[in-house]
Amino acid sequence: MHHRLMAVAFNHTIVATRDQEAGARFLAEVLGLPAPTRFGPFSVVALPDGASLDYMDSDEVHPQHYAFLVSEAVFDAVTERLRDRGVPIYADPWHGTPGHNTNDGGRGAYFDSPEGHNLEVITRPYGSGGA
């Protein structure tokens, strides 16, 4: 029996938060994306590639990691928006070194969302070059 390969693309994930409106609004504003929309019980942040992060209210929030590949210009805009909000950025996922890193010949920064998720913006995919 022959199975055809089918294209696979990431579509959405559910992000647990104690305040879905605030969490979704924070992500959309910081990344410079359109305002969140409602879909059923979710506050949805749509990404330009068609995927989405669907925020859902929850009494229990287990910190997750979400990383976003962005252009150099968007990286500058994101880190400026975070500075304006007083949200610190870090060069490492453990938040030990303030500022950003220069991994793979690009730049990367980690920061916390209001609900405690560890968010990351990078300008080059991991393993794409540089030190």
List the strand order in the largest sheet. Answer: 1-4-3-2
What is the H/E string? EHEEEEHEE
Low-pLDDT segments? none
Shape: globular
Helical proportion, percent range: 10-25%
Count of strand segments: 7
Largest sheet, in brief, is: 4 strands, mixed
Radius of gyration: 16 Å
Distance between the termini: 45 Å
Q: From the helix content, strand content and strand pairing, which structural class follows?
A: alpha/beta
| Contiguous helical run count | 2
Domain VOC: 9-124
Protein name: VOC family protein
Supply the key terms.
131 residues, alpha/beta, 3-stranded mixed sheet, 20% helix, 27% strand
Overview of this protein structure:
By secondary structure, the protein is an alpha/beta fold. Helix content is about 20%, strand content about 25%. The chain is built from two helices and seven strands, in the order βαββββαββ. The strands form two sheets. Strands 1-4-3-2 form a four-stranded mixed beta sheet, with helices on one face. β3 (about 40-45) and β4 (about 50-55) form a beta hairpin. The radius of gyration is 16 Å and the shape is globular.
Give a concise summary.
This is VOC family protein. This protein is an alpha/beta fold. 20% of the residues lie in helices and 27% in strands.
Could you outline the blueprint of secondary structure elements for this entry?
Layout: E1 12-17, H1 20-31, E2 37-39, E3 42-46, E4 52-57, E5 65-69, H2 72-85, E6 108-112, E7 118-122
Parallel strand pairs: 1-4, 5-7
Antiparallel strand pairs: 2-3, 3-4, 6-7
Domain VOC: 9-124
Protein name: VOC family protein
Pfam families: Glyoxalase
